[in-house]
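Re-running the complex after MR caught last week's input typo. The corrected sequence lines follow. Everything else is unchanged.
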Amino acid sequence: MVKITLDGITKKFGNFTALDNITLEIEDKEFMALLGPSGSGKSTLLYTIAGIYKPTSGRIYFDEKDVTEVPPKDRNVGLVFQNWALYPHMRVFKNIAFPLELKKAPREEIEKKVKEVAKMLHIDHLLDRYPWQLSGGQQQRVAIARALVKEPDVLLLDEPLSNLDALLRLEVRAELKRLQKELGITAVYVTHDQAEALAMADRIAIIREGKILQVGEPDEVYYKPMYKFVAGFLGSPPMNFVEAEVEGEVLKIYQSRIPVPGQYKDIVKKLNITEVLFGFRPHDAEIVREEREGIKGEVYSFEPLGREQIVTVAVDTDVFVKVFAPEGEHFRFGEKVTVVPNEERIVLFDKKTEKALEYL
Amino acid sequence: MKDVETRPKKGEWIIVLTILFASLPLILGFALLIISSFSRDMVTDLSLDSFRPTIENWINVFQGRLAITGGIRQNILKITLNTLVVALGVSGIVTLISTLAGYSLSRMKFRGRKLMMLLLLMLHAFPGVALIVGVYLLYRLTFPQEPSFVRLYSFFYVILARAALEIPMSVWLMKGFFDTIPWEFEWSGIIDGASRIRVWRQIMLPLIKPGILAVALFGFLAGWQDLIYVRTFLIDQTLATFIEANIEAEYSHMPLIAAAGTLYLLPTIMFFLTAQQLLLQGYSGGIKG
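Corrected-run output:
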């Protein structure tokens, strides 16, 4: 139940810079997701908050208190590891009780608290088992219980769902979000799964190569991506990008021409930019057969998914865009179609810096 | 029909047969020793004529009688106890030091860590016999003046010296075991408020139980079997030196020595019968596969 402030955190391992001047504020009771590909430094950042890694430079504050030099045990954080790190030689009860035993809490209090947290996570019938006697989902709950039992100010989670199978993951996802809000605990959640981040977090910080690219609410990072990387990382399938040339008020996209979207008219004029990346999400476009203003191409492939289908359209040789189409619509391979993006949802990126034009 | 990977390979029996044939002299030797210990005379060939069963040898061994005629007696129980003291002492010291040193070599950064590991490997390759002059010099230099300490001191010294020979290998072995344990276990303990030493004792040690048992057993066997160091430094006898001393004595009754030899071999045989499961045994669960 603290606000976490990271002020210019840099972490180097030898010559390798894992974290590069990261500044981030995580509000009290907020659920913050650190999202990035593997090797981006998101776990390093989490472990730096926990105190396992000491930043090479920069300060960490919990509320107003500078905790940069405070050892992990005195930071009052709970950490759930990706592999859960349950002690295999201890029963579930002992696993959960371990942090309290280290604090030399009285026996009755330990018993009471362990039972409480076990009940909350629906594992109170498993306390006598060993970790290897539990299913993946149950082990994961034990790991969360162990992190929560000492009533930490901050809950840190390092890809806690990545070892669960897909269905269970969806279930735990909803539950974890609910739990965090019920407890009113500040949570930092590391994941490489964009769907998890979008579904659970209050705000998402997208990290690449040790730098934060964008921080914002799920809606904001999804619809107003600051970088091509952010747009290409979020969504499944991610945003489509095609190269476009600006000719006055018209965008030339291979054989097609469409007007510059309204929201970009002034920006394009002001920046006097000629080469852009044209981005739109697969859900924010439709495929039509009649003559319309849009991106012309032919159907390369289509994948029915039940309620809808993903159609891959070849705009040029080796240039493809993916668009969702309603179920029941029939396509033929090689059929000539036009992709009409929803104008309001189009994002234009500078080709060189790959930054969205409105953020330039 | 068996699964592909468990199906015996073609011609596997040839390999098994070859191995069996190659180890035949050894197996035969041990077999003759054990058979002889239950016989009135030594069984030295495969004919059963010389085998006249008796358990007299074993009775004599435990009564400490070295010759059938009875005159010379030695307390074999005390000798076995001596052997046990040396073996357990070596085992204990080796286990304690190698679990601590293995942990720090595996987990901590300090100056000279790489050099130390290199030296350990070199030390392991160094034969104990080659060191004995120096080790003896040290023994003489530290030898106590007070006569009542002398025997105790010789035990102390032989245990220490023999353990020192085992330690390089054991430290490497333990380092390997610690290396297999993911950092998360340790981090988890540290975040929950445990000190490094507590993490080592309460989390790490239970996780590498098979390794500890292996090192302890190797240490035990080293102490139990050792001849040269015990012979040089220990004032009392152990089974090894006892057998060695009596094997060519005129008065000794060979089947009796065979019984003592079998007794001496017992831990080794037991170890190799049980070690495989022990070393393969490991924890699973609580951590992803």
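None of the earlier attempt is carried over here. Residues 282-289 of chain B have pLDDT under 50 and may be disordered. Residues 76-240 of chain B form a domain with the MetI-like fold fold (CATH 1.10.3720.10).
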